[in-house]
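#onboarding

Welcome to the new folks! Below is a worked example of what a typical request in this channel looks like: someone posts a single protein sequence, and someone else replies with the predicted structure as tokens. Don't worry about understanding the tokens yet, we'll cover that in week two.

Example request:
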Amino acid sequence: MAAASDSEQRTGGTSSRESTGEVTVVEPAMVKRAVSAAALGNAMEWFDFGVYSYIAVTLGKVFFPSGNPTAQLLSTFGAFAAAFLVRPIGGMVFGPLGDRIGRQKVLALTMIMMAAGTFCIGLIPSYASIGVGAPILLLVARLVQGFSTGGEYGGASTFIAEYAPDKKRGFLGSWLEFGTLAGYVGGAGLVTLMTALLSTDALLSWGWRIPFLIAGPMGIIGLYLRMRLEETPAFAQLEAEARTKEKERREAEKRVGVREMIFGQWRSMLLCVGLVLVFNVTDYMLLSYMPSYLTSELKYDETHGLLVVLAVMVVMMCVQPFAGRLSDRFGRRPVIAAGCAGFLVLSVPALLLIRQGSLLAIALGMSALGLLLVCFTSTMPSTLPALFPTKVRYGSLSIGFNISVSLFGGTTPLVVTALIGATGDRMMPAYYMMAAAVIGGIAVWRMSESARKPLPGSPPAVETDAEAREVVRITRQKATAAA
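Example response:
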């Protein structure tokens, strides 16, 4: 069996990829389109989360009037965390659906729901206008966002991983989190600009709505890009196999239930939860919580604090693709382990620097944490899909990812704010990150290396026919030697 038959090459086959079951040859142009479409959806999701976090103080005044600023912030972060409570439900719905009907269709649906939920937040009247109905509507919109997001990351990372050649999966996957950072930078930049240009009254009256209303056009663009994509090679092959003489058995495999996705993959599921825990606790701590920490706990100037975090995210964006290449060359485990060790050793010194209060000290502390975070953002999109086989990849990853995010990641701002309020210890963010680093380190120790290897349940993926023929030749030589 060759990498692709002569007739397929003459007719273009599927135009985006050729697969014989032995080797998959992917077309670079289609890979770029797949990465762009997946990353844009992630960018829109995190544009909203970034805006919500950076404008949390203002939203607290609009939707949760109170004489206590801490109570307002807790209420706002409570609504923020509520969206994460329904994420596992979204994962349990969209994940199995993605394994049944295809990754592309479900990702288009999640894009529509995310855009609609975010857009509607910008239309909600304030508490002063309709009273308690305002925070209720905000909560409903956040729940819609959380439900749709339950199928977003697992689907997007699966989509890129199944399209990417094995030797470039880390580099291409890193662009998914590049989209996350770009969304954050867009949200933070817009909030910073509005904070600098608008008066407090204007921001409270109408200015806060602008970032959420932008989600409408962004969603239309993202939907257009995703609708133009073809299904991933791995899922297309699973569908093709379902049309062979083993059709009934393959169809049964595709209808794997949620129970099998969780308990049938229990070891991989535990590793996924541990890796996502350290990834998201540190992510939400730095990108979502720290702006509010600088303002509410350290009384730092709001505009300058936002600018510092914005600069850190731009640095992270620049480093992101290079870190992805490093994971392709040296492996996912060394890069993730370096991040865990760094957070364990440097969280306290970095936060002490931040607490010094000077612009230089805050920039140095935040930059140290940001560069450590890149160890996770650059590797997780390629590491997590490799934990699961093709037939359950979307579903198992979505469920494991969202359970961990809901319990540990999305609750980080709320839990840390409450811990500081209960103990009076403003070093709690550092201790929280250190605890997450220990759990992440255990997960890295127990996981297998996946760099430069085919995804479980999928054939090797390469970029050219010559590479495919070489892979087939080597595979057959090994098989002959073993026989």
